[in-house]
Design goal:
Length: about 1000
Amino acid sequence: MVRTLPTSFPFEILRERERERERERVMAETAVCSSSEPTPDVEKVMIRDISLAAEAQTREGDTFYLITQRWWQDWLEYVNQNQATITLDGSSSDRSDSCGLTNLKRPSAIDNSDLIYEAESEDSPIGIDLHDTLVEGTDYILLPQEVWNRLYAWYGGGPTLARKVINSGVSQTELAVEVYPLRLQLHLMPKGDNSSIRISKKETIGELHRRACEIFDLNSEQVWIWDYYGRRKYALMQDMGKTLDDANIQMDQDILVELVDNSNSALGGCMSSVLENGSADKETTSVLVEPSKSGFSIAGGFSASKGLSRNCNSESSQFQSLTSPGRESDNTYGISGVTTRGSSCGLTGLLNLGNTCFMNSAIQCLVHTPEFARYFREDYHKEINWQNPLGMVGELALAFGELLRKLWAPGRTPVAPRPFKAKLARFAPQFSGYNQHDSQELLAFLLDGLHEDLNRVKHKPYVKSRDADGRPDEEVADEYWANHISRNDSIIVDVCQGQYKSTLVCPTCNKISVTFDPFMYLSLPLQSTTTRTMAVTVFTCDGSALPNACTITVPKQGRCRDLIQAISNACSLKHNEKLLLAEIRSHLIHRFLEDPLILLSSIKDDDHLAAYKIPKFVKNTKFLQLIHRREERETSNAQSTIGWKPYGTPLVSPISCDEVITRGDIQSMVHTMLSPMLRTESVGHPDISDTNTLLPASDPSQTTSSSAACRDSNVEDSVQRNGGSSKTVTLPKLPLQLVDENNACIDLSVGEDKAVKLSSSSMSILVFIDWSGKLLEKYDAYYLENLPEVFKNGPVTKKARTEPLSLYTCLEAFLREEPLVPEDMWYCPQCKERRQASKKLDLWRLPEVLVIHLKRFSYSRSMKHKLETFVNFPIHDFDLTNYIANKNNASRQLYELYALTNHYGGMGSGHYTAHIKLLDENRWYNFDDSHISPINEEDVKSPAAYVLFYRRVKTEDASVSNGAQSSVDHVIYSRK
């Protein structure tokens, strides 16, 4: 990695005069102060002046030093003494205190240990090695040599981390600090020894040769140095004056150090051939090691492949961009004489221009789509639509076609896609600069832009789509497709566009609207599992049963209606009952989950849910919420007070607004709600969280009779039997308090005949019951206290979550019926209102090339997240026959994978590569920017897979999916 330096520092005359006055004042203070150490002000001014002078005269070969950002920040605070922080360019608010006002502690010795690996030492071949993911300005800063010398003289410490200034950029005139020199893996053959070294990319092959001989203690005349990219002999490095940069050697690359016996005539002849040609022929070059996955270089920085990046794990690695925006990283242009890696057409890499791996991976997948490879290598200019206002005046198509031809030309060095990127930035400013972007977003723009540039329709007719109105789907689908083709006809439509059936149902009037819309790719959601286990406690309001916790299984991406239905089945809900679902927080009802369309994903595993059985056909009601409180002692300021605090789980019961409600009515209602918990004798408490145990008791018959006996016993003293009839005279008064509309508490234990005024603005009536110790002796409130969590993690669940996710499962989730989001509501033509309709998608017509985007990235207002879920996608025989809604199409819909993009790492700091199958070779390759290496088919699948490219398998009964025979049905790669 390199860090770019400015070439000059012009400063205003006024600021220079101010600094001169500052220097004079500081020097005067220095003479006054008797301290043996320089004052903070003296240090500040001296470092500033030295740094300005040093950086203004920076030249190639100069030395800069890394210093930990942590220590540098401590020093800045020390020298500024709570003033504005200065920077090396001198920009600060300069106001110094006298030497006697220093109050911050002087920093201790410089400690750079957090920047390095502890295992390395200066004597090792690799030297003191930096951590691979350091970021300038966050982990370290770079200091000119004079600045480091001054700080080191004052503070001491270390270790010293020196780095050289090199020329970089396209013109090789841009100064940059090479923070991360090349780390190369040396393999000595045939002895089998290995060693790692650090060496500048600007060093020569001769220097690499010398150091390899020194490390392995070899005679230079007996050693050949090979470019061992992908652990294959690709090129003999015999030009001792060429730099490693010119030889296209990159981070963590393998170098073969081969011992040669010149007395062997056969071997000598082979070496002579190599010397003449500069590379070894495949048939004369032996492969000493099986090919392996190559490490990929991120913007000229560290390697992040498995086993190479020391602080990255194989599942999720956080990669840092090591390129400064606005410049091109090293190796951004082709250099004559660089050995071509591989001789087959189509095996040409793309140089990374600085975080352009997202673009390179998408381009490689497109240029290796057989239909596009043939189309753009022939004369496509006659189809360019120069007048299309939706296109790019043909410029994007021309730039892409030219790039494709370069990538398919034989004997090419890696291509720098600068002209194409310039066109891309012109028409899509969101992709300008050198920041990391989403490969799929680029792909979507590129396909759409190429379509408009190559649209064969020069004058688009006006087309008005008709509603289905009960017509056969086949007729309506063909009509929609014909309308689409009349306005959109290009190679992109021929190859990549399909059609799906979209069905909308109005939730109010049940109006059904069916349309048939085109698609360019499918974006499939990822779910770690398709179902979710949830625990909910069910309460009754009529006193018929104790609370009961049940565990149910629901769709993970389901809605509250799915949850309510599952609970209804589990608790055997009667036809005249319904469930009122509520979320409980801090012993209060946080919210009622009344909207059936609420996403279950909004309910977290550590939430607590309660479901209340209430009558189904009661109208004009409000809900009484019985909030439980008990005495708790609070201690503050050495004083102890007793207060009533909420506890347990609220109970809910409906109240009719059509009748007059008295305080006595509420007393009776609460008695009924609490009646199952009346104590009879001391019995063990079953655990409410044990979903396999019914809570009333181990013997349901005993519980029922006991509860009935409790209720009879409780009221027998207040019941008069007169002529065989019974009449309730009075009930024990419960300590209830009603919260009125003014938030005042009304005692309900007195004035039982007084009417209660119900609030007209609220659907809830809050009633507190204060549980004293005496009252708790009569009721067993245990059943209210232990509300289980929605879900509790366990080892079984953890095992289940690691199961691979099938691509078919993702497709089924995409095709599942679900309501539209509120921001995208549908205008119902029958209601004349915007409605949150339910939407169902079905595949109707499939394209020749099916592009599938796995939605690994999720965005919200507060966070960004990437899913590392492994998706088990088929490479061969991806069968979509059963997913086609057009049942008149009897042919099998089989697809085969031929390309995919991968994303490694986290959000905004990862790396893209592509896996591509050359169909004429029937072999897979890894395209990692300019690096290309063969891979085994079993290595194609990984949790990094992001965008999949499938191609239709030609069968005898295959019918044309897009309504017109394509001229590019079957393409055999030709070598030109």
